[in-house]
Write a structure and sequence with these properties.
2 copies of one chain form a homodimer. Chain A is mainly α and 339 residues long. In chain A, 78% of the residues lie in helices and 0% in strands. In chain A, helix 5 packs antiparallel against helix 6, helix 6 runs antiparallel to helix 10 and helix 8 runs antiparallel to helix 9. The complex binds coenzyme A (2 copies). One coenzyme A binds next to helix 8, helix 9 and helix 10 of chain B.
Chain lengths: 339, 339
């Protein structure tokens, strides 16, 4: 027992000394971090100032300045920005604001990771998650449509469709949260792709309350649902292709040892970017079909005998999402081809 | 222009040197962190081992050992555990597993904060969030019930009720996420309170699909909804009281300068814990009413003319939640009175 007593005392002392080291480590760190943060911030604002000065010199048709030199300076500044934001120093820049969505669901917790490794892991996991869901995206509506003609005599029962909508709701909530987190961790994802998932969440919620049975002419009433399911299957295929492209893009970057955006020039990832020209026609077709489904829903709601508000709202949402997707895909392509 | 060129070069150099300091800071830190982590882990396992040794000595009716001494050693060990887990050292213990819920919605991002200040802030924000929602919890069903008798002639329209259920769904999702985050950050919240919110999420989802109109006898069909709304109002009141109690408990701890659980003994927070004996009867009444509403729903589903599966499922869920809440409240009280 004496030996035990000694051990307990030792454990107690160990705990105290560990506590001391831990708190001195933390306080030492926080002051050093603070100074790094200040340096990063002042450098960031210097670069901003220089950029606007050079820009105004360059574009004011001032004959006295050499445009070549201006371009060179702009390039240098771009390089400095890349060093600052893409490397380890990036974690000391003021974080991007969290946005209301994350704050609503998570509160003021910090989801930014300062280590690049973890940031990459989060991104890979996001891609893997999208892959898993893309398969379900394909199979779930497929099963519903098959069962409909084989077993359910052309008239979908309410429950499986609602289960599908509930699944969509959770899926889109998860995607929105993850994309917001990626954004906080420095991803350049366009805000629209996140808004698009908010819209999709809202639509899934609305269609949960939509009673698809209860009228004599079931096939006619469910025409909208059928179109929606077909479109969802197409979306599954498009998601798989898009994932393949985006995963390869990430891996090419990592393989080149160039996690820095600056180092990846158009030529080097040409193999991957070539895929983009294959992917885009498919995306445009999808977006066209999305708008078509939306119009179809609106038509039945306005001129047919379906009077539920859910139908017209879903129609409007689908059309808005199609337009937004199209505009943003075109803008992405334009930015890329400018390189 | 020459001056600008010099400035650009300086900015470039600044970026590079900042990058160097940042990466050396990060790599230095990570090795030091690693060693703190190892020390914390080995101390943790030592304490565990000692505790089980003392426990077996104490409880094997070994006449040779002095029970007083055993108790003293146990108390010392408890103190050592508190120093280890409640102080700064706690951030270097292996984190509690994230749980499937967080992983599903957020992916592998780390939501643990190593600074005690931020952990407290997160908890305060959680309490503030609950306060805001408790008010809505009170007002939303109240408005529905008032409008029902004033304007809607005793028959609730579908849309406002569905909007209410949708709001509940998001609210409970947010609460579940936040509570999971608190848990990862070291809160002792019982797992049941989190499961309870999963149940509530599921119930909100189910009742979204529940068509509350469409039959001739509306008042009878909506009896269940009416009870549910009344119960929700009571819950709003209980939440407000519960928040008041929990916020004061937190503030007492902070004010005493004793964020460590070990230092807070029964007597010191007696003013707050006294409230508990006032709160609990209210909670028990609520839980009884919750079970009553569940039974009522089941009754209409089994013996009435309402055939929707949603009704019986909600009934079962309510009864389960009432039982679980009751059991866990009693267990909490038992643990507290043992001090
Ligand atoms: C057009 C498209 C293929 C371009 O992808 P890209 O080449 O990765 O685009 P960018 O280079 O602008 O990407 C910038 C960032 O945004 C991310 N991103 C781009 N589009 C995204 C999307 N739709 N969803 C999520 N993230 C996206 C990229 O992964 C990249 O992240 P990173 O900075 O962390 O590396 C892609 O935006 C896309 O698939 N859009 C169409 C979506 C659509 O219309 N779907 C139909 C309905 S679902
Ligand atoms: C009984 C009760 C008041 C005890 O609260 P308490 O004194 O804080 O209980 P404990 O000391 O066990 O709390 C341990 C931790 O769990 C948290 N916690 C306890 N009950 C909680 C609950 N219902 N929801 C969220 N967190 C809770 C506490 O904040 C504390 O967190 P901390 O470790 O970070 O400080 C509380 O559990 C309660 O209100 N339960 C009843 C809930 C209920 O039945 N509601 C009816 C339907 S909503």
């Amino acid at each position: 027992l004496d030996a035990l007593q000694a051990e307990v005392t030792k454990a107690m002392e160990g705990a105290k000394s560990l506590q001391d080291s831990a708190s001195s480590f933390i306080s030492r760190n926080s002051s050093e971090e603070q100074s790094l943060r200040l340096r990063a911030q002042s450098l960031d604002s210097t670069i901003r100032r220089l950029r606007s000065q050079i820009y105004s010199l360059h574009h004011h048709d001032n004959k006295a300045v050499d445009p070549k030199l201006c371009e060179k300076l702009e390039e240098d500044l771009h390089r400095a920005t890349c060093v600052l934001t893409d490397g380890d120093a990036g974690s000391f820049l003021p974080p991007k604001a969290h946005g209301g969505f994350l704050r609503m669901f998570l509160g003021p917790i910090n989801v930014r990771s300062s280590s690049k490794d973890i940031q990459l892991k989060v991104k890979e996991e996001y891609n893997a998650y999208r892959d898993r869901t893309a398969l379900l995206f394909l199979l779930f509506p497929f099963a519903l449509l098959i069962l409909r003609s084989w077993i359910w005599d052309g008239c979908l029962p309410t429950f499986p469709v609602q289960a599908y909508q509930a699944w969509l709701l959770f899926l889109y909530t998860g995607l929105s949260l993850r994309e917001n987190i990626l954004r906080v961790n420095g991803s350049d994802i366009r805000p629209w792709w996140i808004y698009h998932h908010y819209c999709a969440m809202f639509m899934a919620m609305v269609s949960l309350t939509w009673d698809i049975q209860g009228q004599p002419n079931c096939a006619q009433k469910q025409r909208g649902v059928e179109l929606f399911l077909q479109w969802a299957m197409m979306q599954g295929v498009a998601m798989l292709l898009q994932n393949r492209y985006q995963r390869q893009r990430l891996y090419t970057r990592i393989a080149l040892g160039k996690a820095n955006r600056m180092d990846v020039v158009w030529g080097e990832t040409a193999g991957v970017d070539g895929q983009l020209w294959l992917l885009c026609p498919i995306l445009f077709i999808m977006q066209g079909f999305e708008a078509y489904v939306g119009l179809q829903l609106l038509k039945t709601a306005l001129f047919g005998d379906v009077t539920e508000w859910q139908v017209s709202l879903c129609g409007v949402l689908l059309i808005l999402m199609a337009i937004g997707n199209f505009v943003n895909t075109v803008q992405t392509l334009m930015v890329k081809s400018r390189f």
